[in-house]
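Q: Okay, next protein. This is Protoheme IX farnesyltransferase from Devosia algicola. I've checked the sequence twice, so it should be correct. Can you predict the 3D structure?
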Amino acid sequence: METYDPHKSTNEARQGNRRKANLRVLVISMALIVIAFIVLYAIYTMTQPGTAGAV
């Protein structure tokens, strides 16, 4: 990739990194969103009336 800044490497020009920090952030944030939905669902089901004795 050709860049107009002579001080940037190819990785810097395309904003890539070898440590995969962007992937790590995406995976952690997705896991937190899923956990938040599980917690909300659990709270919702525990607050519903009349479901304790239903079989």
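A: Here is a summary of the prediction. The chain has a mean pLDDT of 80. The two ends are 64 Å apart (CA to CA).
Q: Noted. On to the next one.
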